[in-house]
Design brief:
Blueprint: H1 3-14, E1 19-24, E2 30-34, H2 45-54, E3 58-62, E4 65-72, E5 77-81, H3 85-96, E6 100-104, E7 121-122, H4 126-132, E8 139-143, H5 148-161, E9 165-168, H6 172-184, E10 195-196, H7 208-224
Parallel strand pairs: 5-6, 5-8, 6-7, 8-9, 9-10
Antiparallel strand pairs: 1-2, 1-4, 3-4
Helix pairs in contact: 3-7
Length: 231
C-alpha cells in the first residue's frame, strides 16, 4: 500500500470519518475515496453508496475491471438523551445490535448507576458531554426526556452535524412547538424533515419496551437503508 494513502486512511479512522481504499486488482493502482467525496459518474459510485452503509469490504466486478474495496467506517453510535424507562430497555437492545451507546441526563433522580449499569450513563448536561464527544455522521440521537431544556440542544446539534438518525419523543403537537423553538433559534427549516417525530417505527408500540423496539428499528433502518426518493 502507498504509505501516503495509509497515513490518510488512519487519519480518517482517528477522526471517525468513513473512507474506502480502492485497489485495481489488475494494475495494483490504489485510490482513497471518502464518503460524499466521489463523483456521481464514478463507475463505482453505486457500489460506494452500498459499502458505506454496509461497512463490508469485498471484490467488485465491473466493465472496467475487478476492484477490491477495503471499507473503513466508524462504529455506529447511539446517543440517548434521557435516562427514562424507554432508555433502560433500549440500551441493552442497541448494544446487542452492535451500537456504542451513551445515555445523557443531568437529572440525578433518573441518571443512576442502579438503573444504567455498565458505563453507558453520563449524568451531565448534553452541552458538556457533547463538547468532549462531538456528534458525527455515524451517530444516531434519540431524545426522550420530554424536557426542551435537555432535548433541544442535542437535537439541534444532531441536525447541524448531519447525524444519520435524529428522533424525538412527543406528540405531533409537542413536535410542532419544538419546531417553533428551532425556527426561533435560526435553524434551517429544510432540516426539520430529518427529525423522526413521533419517534420510532409505527408499530403501535405502547409500553416502554415496545417503544424501544420501534426506536431501534428506526435507527437501524436509517443506518442500513438508503433514503427513499419520490418517484
Amino acid at each position: 500500500m502507498d504509505l501516503s494513502l495509509l497515513t490518510r486512511l488512519n487519519q480518517h479512522r482517528a477522526e471517525r470519518q468513513a473512507a474506502i481504499l480502492v485497489t485495481d486488482m489488475a494494475s495494483g493502482a490504489q485510490r482513497l475515496v471518502q464518503k460524499d467525496g466521489f463523483a456521481d459518474n464514478d463507475p463505482l459510485a453505486g457500489e460506494f453508496e452500498k459499502r458505506f452503509r454496509s461497512g463490508k469490504s469485498g471484490t467488485v466486478e465491473t466493465e472496467n475491471g475487478t476492484f477490491f474495496l477495503t471499507v473503513s467506517v466508524p462504529s455506529p453510535r447511539l446517543v440517548i438523551i434521557g435516562a427514562v424507562h424507554i432508555s433502560q430497555a433500549l440500551v441493552p437492545m442497541a448494544e446487542i445490535a452492535g451500537l456504542d451507546v451513551t445515555v445523557i441526563d443531568p437529572r440525578t433522580a433518573f441518571a443512576t448507576e442502579d438503573r444504567f449499569p455498565g458505563g453507558a450513563l453520563k449524568a451531565e448536561w448534553p452541552e458538556d458531554v457533547l463538547k468532549e464527544a462531538p456528534l458525527d455522521a455515524y451517530t444516531a440521537v434519540a431524545a426522550v426526556t420530554h424536557d426542551p431544556k435537555i432535548d433541544d440542544f442535542p437535537l439541534i446539534e444532531a441536525l447541524k452535524t448531519g447525524c444519520f438518525y435524529v428522533g424525538a419523543l412527543g406528540s405531533r403537537k409537542t413536535h410542532a412547538k419544538r419546531l417553533d423553538r428551532f425556527r426561533e433559534a435560526d435553524l434551517d427549516p429544510v432540516t426539520f424533515d430529518r427529525i423522526d417525530a413521533p419517534i420510532g417505527l409505527d408499530i403501535g408500540a405502547a409500553s416502554p419496551e415496545e417503544i424501544a423496539v420501534a426506536v431501534l428499528g428506526s435507527v437501524i433502518t436509517a443506518l442500513r437503508k438508503a433514503p427513499e426518493t419520490p418517484e
